[in-house]
Amino acid sequence: RKRYPQKKQAARNRDTHLQFSIPSVIHSPSYPRANFRIMQQQQLRFGSPSSWLLGLLSLWILLTDPIASSFGTAFVLNGSPARNTRGLPLLLATAGVSQSNDKKVALRQQQQISTNGRINQKKESSSRVMLQRRNMLASIATTTAAVVMLGHNPAALAADGSATTVANTVAAMSPKVTDRVFLNVRISRQDGTFYVRDDLPDTPENNVFYGRLVLELFGEVAPATVERFKSYITSATSQVLDDNPLPSYSRATFPAVDPATGVLAAGKIPGLELTTVVGGATALQYGGRLLPAPLWVERGGGTASNTKLSHVGKGLLTHKVLESLPVFGITTRTDTTQLDPTHIVFGRLVLSSDSNKDDDDGAKFLQIVSTLPTYSERSRPITAESGVGPGVDEVAQAVFAAQRSFFRSTAKSFGDSRLEKVYDGKLLRRVEVTQAGIL
């Protein structure tokens, strides 16, 4: 071993197989010398305390029990009839050493396998993990920088949204109405037309709805949001004859109804999109020009105390915080409190009024919109009248979903922009704004 150091590991490995050589050594004529030579060459290690305790207990049983003592020597000497009691402590100690070595070898192999597994996982996922961390840090840095510059605290926003109660509703607080604006709207026929036609039967599907929506704004509750909202109203009245006007609600549409919350999306201006300019900044692109894209966010939460209104009631005007587009929502259900952490209530739609007959158009408008057909990405359920069992229905649903996913992914890979015009909850009737102004 001194001449050949590379055999040290092989010598260590032989320690684990010591139990196979003990019986032959015990049978050798020069037993004490062979035992000393094995102890010196193989470098035996003492076993664990539990192994020694087990060995001592076995020795005590063999020495005290007459039946065990009569068969103990033969058992210890691996079937040898010779009664050499000196071999008993050696074999018991060797059993402890073998058990300890087996545990150490198993532990060493387990550590080696675990180490190799960790190395392989690190090699395979290092680039992916670094990319995910880089994207996450970039997103956090961008959002944090915008929030800090605007004086907004997302943690406080989440706390305020989760702490809203019934006392924060519009009916309970009666916030002050600072501004009143109107939107003249129209809803097309089922064929998408608005012009007068006398050849169609007089049914709700063939009638065009015209009405005026009166909106009341809470300037003390959400002053920044109200100012942003009014900027898209005043631009419509001040640029009537402009060839290249700024975006305004006078050309807006009502594109969809969220199937989960029932919120009617409003204020979508065709041609107004978010774009990224040089340096990673975000801007609004409209009519061949770039416009600034400030975030709709409140600084300090308004001038009134405890002004975080909850989404309880129909006809509430809501806008998503930290959003640059002027798209807002109108609640169509009595309880939409799941929007409290992410949206802010800044006004309401007047649903009825005894003094002004035009205010009744708000209730009619919401009633008609709630009955309009919408696009759904889910397949139509098969009814019992069709005679198809539930198992076939599940198969049909799965086939429909697979076909839709295949064709949509194929069209997306080809760069088909029509996919952006088809989404869940889209209204299948045209709902447009024809005029906007301040009352």
Automatic annotation (TrEMBL):
Domain PPIase cyclophilin-type, residue spans: 200-381
Keyword match Membrane: yes
UniProt keywords, alphabetically: Membrane, Transmembrane, Transmembrane helix
Transmembrane feature ranges: 46-63
Source domain of life: Eukaryota
Gene3D superfamilies: Cyclophilin-like
Example of a GO MF term: peptidyl-prolyl cis-trans isomerase activity
Coiled-coil region list: none
InterPro entries membership: Cyclophilin-like_dom_sf (IPR029000), Cyclophilin-type_PPIase_dom (IPR002130)
This protein's name: PPIase cyclophilin-type domain-containing protein
Organism of provenance: Entomoneis paludosa
